[in-house]
Amino acid sequence: MMLAEKPQIEDFDFRRPDLRGPIPVDRLRELRGERILSVRRRAKFLLFETARGFILSHLGMTGSWREVSEGGERAHDHVYIRLADGRRLGFRDPRRFGVMDFVPLDGTSPHLDQLGPEPLGEEFEVDEFFSRLRSTARAVKIAIMDPRTVVGVGNIYASEALFRARIRPSRPGNGLSRSETARLHREIRAILTEAIEAGGSSISDYVQADGANGRFQDRFRVYDREGEPCGLCGGRVRRVIQGGRSSFFCPRCQR
DNA sequence: CTCCTATCCTGCGAGC
DNA sequence: TGCTCGCAGGATAGGA
Question: Which phi and psi angles does A130 have, rounded to 5°?
Answer without folding.
Answer: -60, -50
